[in-house]
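Section 4.2 – Deliverable D4.2 (structural model, holo form)

The reporting period included a commitment to supply a predicted holo structure for the target in complex with zinc ion. Inputs used:
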Amino acid sequence: MLKYDIATTHRVLAATKASRLSGGSFRRHDDIEISYAEGAYAIKCRACGARWRAVEELPGFDGINFERLTEESGVCQRPKR
Ligand SMILES: [Zn+2]
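Output (structure tokens):
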């Protein structure tokens, strides 16, 4: 289980960026926010409401990977800028 502290928060943040850059979970979602509740880091896209949970997984991204909690719509609803 990922503990809640500054170092781990930075690891989770870095992992979301690494995942996006590699075409992972967040490649279509660029307005994400991270929170911590009930013993887990939660990631949410503000634009479309998609949610993930950070899990410890090797290799992952520095040992962190993401588990999708909401249905994959395939496309973020955020309007193109
Ligand atoms: Zn989205």
